[in-house]
Design goal:
Structural class: alpha/beta
Order of helices and strands: HEEEEEEEEEHHEEHEEEEEEEEE
Length: 328
């Protein structure tokens, strides 16, 4: 043994002196010195390797398994030494699948660095930053109870923008597995048969003249109103004071509170149409004056000449011509 060599061999009947003990004990002390003592490395004179380290009960221990080239870590579980995990070449491995936690809810590890693949059955992540692209197999996306959709190979997500083939989400993301339950979850009382009446409609259009003939489009309420107004003569707007008319106006003028002027468009274009009607209050005292503005002409008069209406129940339909001005 390193640091120790037997000093004396005594025979029966010989005297043992104190110096004999002192010398022998000094040699033993040297052998167990932490720096120069024997190493238990199995070499000659160094003692056999220590194959097991544990507490007094040896329930909590570390075994050196030379046959499998591994270290086995055991813990006292109900007065039995239960192997928890092993360490061997390139692997730290739990003895029992799905049994050992790494950290706890109250005592967490700090940073985790993995240069390779993380195979995780379920992940609960407070915050996630992805510094590179990720690859997902088909049927990899599951959103709560909505259902899984096949993820095509040409799909990419870049800065929150989805590109590629649309992702199929069962029943419109309602959390239902059939159409009837989907309608119920959306709070709809309409039946599936009623919804089928919308099959084939693809767009709403704004067409005030209803010139578009389409079996797959629906006119907006604005365009329907504009068309009905134009077809039925439209609605009349009451005026009791000065006003600048625009194309399409139908003005019901009441000068009972005092004469006033209707200014026609200052820069009219061909085809503009304005209608003016006077009420019973109109008289030589309470008149309605039409002002063509600038050098524009009304009914062949000189440019800029106004037209005064001093009679009740007069209806004028003014149409602008680019050559001759406002026709009545």
């Amino acid at each position: 043994m390193a640091g120790y060599e037997r000093s004396y061999n005594k025979s029966s009947g010989e005297t043992i002196n104190a110096s004999d003990f002192n010398t022998e004990y000094a040699a033993i002390d040297t052998a167990f010195d932490e720096s120069s003592g024997h190493t238990h490395d199995g070499s000659a004179g160094e003692g056999q390797p220590v194959g097991k380290i544990g507490d007094s009960s040896f329930y909590n221990k570390i075994n050196v398994d030379s046959g499998n080239n591994e270290l086995e870590f055991c813990i006292n579980v109900s007065s039995a030494s239960v192997e928890q995990f092993i360490v061997k070449d390139g692997v730290i491995e739990p003895t029992t699948d799905n049994d050992i936690d790494l950290g706890s809810a109250s005592k967490e590890f700090k940073d985790l660095y993995i240069d390779g693949t993380a195979n995780i059955d379920t992940a609960s992540i407070d915050a996630l930053t992805i510094n590179t692209s990720i690859s997902l197999p088909d049927d990899a996306i599951q959103v709560g109870d909505i259902g899984a959709g096949a993820l095509p190979a040409d799909v990419t997500v870049n800065n929150g923008n989805w590109s590629g083939t649309d992702l199929a989400v069962a029943n419109g993301g309602t959390g239902a597995s059939d159409a009837a339950t989907a309608l119920s979850n959306l709070g709809l009382t309409v039946t599936a048969a009623e919804l089928n009446h919308l099959d084939g409609l693809t767009a709403f259009i704004d067409d005030d003249t209803m010139a578009t003939a389409s079996a797959t489009s629906v006119a907006s309420s604005e365009s329907i109103k504009a068309y009905v107004d134009a077809s039925s003569g439209g609605s009349w707007t009451r005026k009791t004071g000065a006003y600048t008319a625009v194309d399409g106006d139908q003005l019901l003028c009441d000068p009972g509170g005092g004469a006033f002027t209707i200014a026609l468009p200052a820069s009219p274009t061909g085809g503009m149409n304005i209608k003016v009607k006077t009420e019973a209050s109109t008289s030589p005292t309470y008149t309605v004056t039409l002002n063509p503005q600038g050098s524009n002409v009304i009914a062949g008069q000189s440019g800029g000449t106004t037209l005064v209406i001093d009679l009740p129940h007069v209806e004028l339909n003014l149409v602008y011509d680019t050559t001759d001005g406002w026709y009545i």
